[in-house]
Design a protein that fits this description.
heterodimer; A: alpha/beta; Four Helix Bundle (Hemerythrin (Met), subunit A); Rossmann fold; 2 domains; 7-stranded mixed beta sheet; 4-stranded mixed beta sheet; 47% helix; 13% strand; globular; B: alpha/beta; 3-stranded antiparallel beta sheet; 10 strands; transferase (chain B); cytoplasm (chain B); guanyl-nucleotide exchange factor activity (chain B); Translation initiation factor eIF2B subunit alpha (chain B); initiation factor (chain B)
């Protein structure tokens, strides 16, 4: 992996971009919604500090403009749209995805949206107006596609949670968190939640804390104890997703497919909650050809409390002879085929997995009309 | 007249008589009207003898006045979806036109044609569905359905085939339908078997064809109690299972299992049992998409997954 501190980045990129990139790499910012939100907010900040390059060289970012542009004193000659896209958006995104961590579908879609929004700006727009407009666009995107969408999903999903239900969920998902809290606090439904967790991320603890804080009764198990609860207790499974693929499959945190398969085998309905901005127009039949690998040391770590450096030494010291032969694959995602899924809850309603493609098409038509 | 068609006519009356001058006003009036229609419908279901005189039949069905029975009790979902569809259509027309008077006229005009459209829908279904019944086959059906009747009668014009009816407890809809077919000029040979004999007769059946109270978003459908059992039985025997339904019965519902259906009126039936025995007697069950071979609709022959596609298009 190239060095994120290399001068080619630190000299050209906004410090916020670098900071966020390091957070992506270290795992301080995780989760698809959070990563996407952080990215959009970062762009919003960078936009705020952005100034068009002029002959004077006192601007501290985005100075790598072409010489032809710096010769003129007239700002109008430099197309803001082109410059912002090529000097800010693209290098930042490239820095994050190439040097820090591969981008999620949510980030990819949001980035494409932002690029389109920049491209759609009026050619002669004043810089201040453009900033205002783009900031609003970013804000609106985060509000409509993430925040409101989560609430709408919660409302749709509420119709599927009844008194006495025993639900099961996996890891941490923002939308599931919102949904369960809404069901408890607003709809006053009495239900029990099994939170399934798995190494190495152990994100389920976060959901457990969040739900316990509002007084929802929860159970907490590891993935390998799944059959124990699934066999008789669970009435519905709610899962989050990293992306919806157009063939109806779900790209989700590793372990999702396992849960869906087992639930299907026990005839327990599996509902996947996912915002429509995570629809990907890709098709994946399995999770081998395209996936993301995490730090392999996370897998070899026996005690979760020790930090990475200690662990590194542990592995190297104890298994020095084996370390070359040992291959720990910390795979982060898997693909759940549509046949294991009963329904996908989006902000536009509950749809069968086979209709994701239709949703994508209809939404694109809507966007075309809007522009 | 089918219940949703009647409801749409009622909503149309609201538009025609309304003094509203803006889209919002009219929408509010329509929403109110929808609530009144639904509540009135529920109330009528609770009056035990309402049904005997209120069911009228359309001209294309073989004297089915008597066979309607309490089938109205199940039509709740279709009624709601018919109303929703009309509301959606009205809203969309207003949004597209912008001009209030012009769009109001268009809604009224289309609404007036709706009864005709729904009849034409049945004809279209009869036309495309009839091809799926072949010479010498045996068709098994359950309950009374006008659409199924129109398909069977259409097919009988050119082909010879047998029909087996399930008796259709507790309102004996199947037996009554068989009586209607027997007296009809098409002279289709009809047999009636007990509901519980569906497994027994399945081996001699070639095609299973049923109607629907409502077709739901996951591609499954809601129909007279026993349909789910029939569908699983047909699947186990590898027999094609066809559902015939007009597209105005497509409902924005997503039932996950039987408990997930909207609460429906229990069928009226006096049973002599001790008080401590609970009688569970729901009029409808839900059949999941995986048991359905094809759906015959006025939008064409659909696979179950295409239902959701059409619904997204209708309601988007």
């Amino acid at each position: 992996m190239p060095d994120p501190y290399a001068s080619e980045f630190t000299e050209t990129l906004h410090p916020d971009v670098i900071e966020l990139g390091l957070k992506y790499a270290s795992g301080d910012i995780q989760g698809d919604n959070e990563r996407c939100r952080a990215m959009m907010e970062c762009f919003s900040n960078v936009l705020n500090d952005y100034i068009l390059p002029t002959t004077s060289s006192n601007n501290n970012d985005d100075t790598t403009t072409t010489n032809t542009n710096t010769n003129t004193k007239n700002n109008d000659v430099i197309d803001f749209r082109h410059h912002f896209d090529h000097q800010v958006l693209k290098p930042s995104f490239q820095f994050w995805t190439v040097n820090c961590r591969p981008h999620s579908v949510s980030m990819g879609n949001a980035f494409t949206f932002l690029k389109t929004a920049v491209g759609m700006l009026d050619r002669d727009i004043l810089l201040s107006d453009a900033k205002l407009e783009l900031t609003e666009t970013i804000e609106r995107y985060l509000q409509e596609r993430l925040e409101y969408a989560d609430r709408a999903i919660a409302q749709h999903a509420l119709s599927k949670i009844h008194n006495g239900d025993v639900l099961l969920t996996f890891g941490y998902s923002e939308v599931i968190d919102v949904l369960l809290k809404t069901a408890h606090e607003e709809a006053h439904i009495k239900f029990y939640v099994w939170i399934v967790d798995a190494r190495p991320l152990m994100e389920g603890k976060r959901l457990l804390q969040s739900l316990r804080a509002v007084g929802i009764s929860c159970g907490y198990i590891q993935l390998n104890a799944l059959t124990y609860v699934m066999q008789k207790q669970v009435t519905k499974v709610f899962l989050g997703a990293s992306a919806l693929l157009v063939n109806g499959s779900i790209y989700g945190q590793i372990g999702t497919a396992c849960i869906a398969l087992l639930a299907k085998n026990h005839h327990v309905p599996v509902l996947v909650c996912c915002e429509t901005y995570k629809i990907s127009n890709k098709v994946q039949l399995e999770s081998i050809t395209q996936n993301e690998l995490g730090n392999p040391n996370d897998l070899l770590l026996l005690d979760n409390t020790t930090n990475n450096n200690n662990n590194n030494e542990n592995v190297n010291n104890n298994n020095n002879n084996d370390s070359n032969k040992l291959h720990a694959a910390n795979i982060l995602y898997d693909v759940t085929p549509d046949k294991f899924i009963s329904g996908i809850i989006t902000e536009l309603g509950i749809i069968p997995p086979t209709s994701v493609a239709v949703l994508l098409r209809e939404m694109n038509m809507l966007n075309d009309r809007a522009y | 007249m089918a219940t949703p068609v009647a409801a749409i006519k009622a909503l149309l009356g609201v538009v025609e008589r309304s003094n509203a001058t803006t889209m919002m006003e009219l929408q509010d009036e329509l929403k109110q009207a929808r609530e009144i229609v639904m509540q009135d419908f529920l109330k009528r279901q609770q009056e035990p003898w309402m049904h005997s005189s209120s069911v009228s039949s359309s001209s294309s069905s073989p004297g089915c006045g008597s066979s309607g029975g309490r089938s109205g009790a199940r039509n709740m979902i279709a009624l709601a979806s018919g109303c929703d569809l009309f509301l959606k259509y009205a809203t969309r027309t207003f949004l597209e036109h912008g001009d209030f008077v012009a769009s109001r006229n268009q809604v009224v005009e289309r609404g007036q044609r709706f009864a005709g459209i729904s009849l034409a829908a049945r004809d279209r279904i009869a036309h495309i569905g009839a091809d799926f019944i072949q010479e010498g086959q045996t068709v098994l059906t359950h309950g009374w359905s006008r659409v199924v009747a129109s398909i069977l009668l259409k097919a009988a014009e050119t082909k010879h085939f047998d029909i087996i009816f399930l008796e259709g407890r507790p309102d004996a809809a199947g037996a009554k339908a068989a009586r209607a077919y027997a007296s009809h000029e098409s002279k289709i040979p009809t047999t009636v078997v007990l509901d519980s004999a569906m497994g027994y007769v399945m081996e001699s059946v070639d095609v299973v064809l049923v109607g629907a109270e409502a077709v739901v978003e996951n591609g499954g459908f809601v129909n007279k109690m026993g349909t789910y059992a029939l569908a699983t039985c047909a699947k186990a025997h590898g027999k094609p299972f066809y559902v015939a339904s007009e597209s105005y019965k497509f409902a924005r519902l997503y039932p996950l299992n039987q408990q997930d259906l909207p609460v429906m009126d229990k069928l009226f039936e006096p049973v002599n049992l001790p008080e401590n025995v609970r009688v569970e007697n729901s009029p409808c069950d839900f059949t999941p998409a995986k048991f359905i071979t094809l759906l015959f609709t006025d939008l064409g022959v659909l696979t179950p997954s295409a239902v959701s596609d059409e619904l997204i298009r209708l309601y988007q």
